[in-house]
Amino acid sequence: xxxxxxxxxxxxxxxxxxxxxxxxxxxxxxxxxxxxxxxxxxxxxxxxxxxxxxxxxxxxxxxxxxxxxxxxxxxxxxxxxxxxxxxxxxxxxxxxxxxxxxxxxxxxxxxxxxxxxxxxxxxxxxxxxxxxxxxxxxxxxxxxxxxxxxxxxxxxxxxxxxxxxxxxxxxxxxxxxxxxxxxxxxxxxxxxxxxxxxxxxxxxxxxxxxxxxxxxxxxxxxxxxxxxxxxxxxxxxxxxxxxxxxxxxxxxxxxxxxxxxxxxxxxxxxxxxxxxxxxxxxxxxxxxxxx
Length: 291
Prior knowledge:
It is a peripheral membrane protein. It contains six helices and four strands. It has 291 residues and is an alpha/beta fold. The protein has two domains: 61 residues, Helix Hairpins (Orthogonal Bundle); 218 residues, ATP synthase, F1 complex, gamma subunit (Pyruvate Kinase, Chain: A, domain 1, 3-Layer(aba) Sandwich). It has a four-stranded mixed sheet. A hairpin with a 5-residue loop joins strand 3 and strand 4.
């Protein structure tokens, strides 16, 4: 049998855990609401950019844009940009990403020398270092990115691609498919392919000034910047959703443990009271016999 004082101490400890997990759940809800709002705004902007870019691509001769450096594959190294969290306590959010990275080498047969990783999130950086994957020259980039930081990252990725340092660039991130179901997506970032615009409807035709090439070179970086920003907020939304669910389940489990401990405490307390009563009765009986 456990000591009632020890059970009481454990109950107080569980109550502290419940307060912590409940507070973390509420924080995740607030951050999730903010991330969804920003994601919706970025989607609207990206849809407009995609429509304009689609119209520009199909204005005039297709062969012109097919020779554009953003559409041609160069180099030998594949760059994978990995979106993870900086902290834990978010369920399987990070482990799904890690499984996808292992799948890339095991199933697709990529060589380690052909792949380079860039981590947005400390957990991804720690995993890549532990597994000794090739990592881009960085410490790690936190997932509290601003619009200016994303613009800088996109410009660096574009520069590496245009200088033939990378043959292609991919994004690995968690996508919230349904309310609480996540799937890991491997999406090509560069080079741009026409398949990305097949579903777009042709809008208005444009009179291009100064030229199609110069306009494309101006608008494509903006398109890529909006795309990376969209993926970032998608990943952030999935992270906060996963953390909110994990903290909700942790609160429920802690409440169940607390309920069981209270029952055990009451049983032990009742047993101790019954034992004391029996001792008193036995003591009175022994006194009566001595008389």
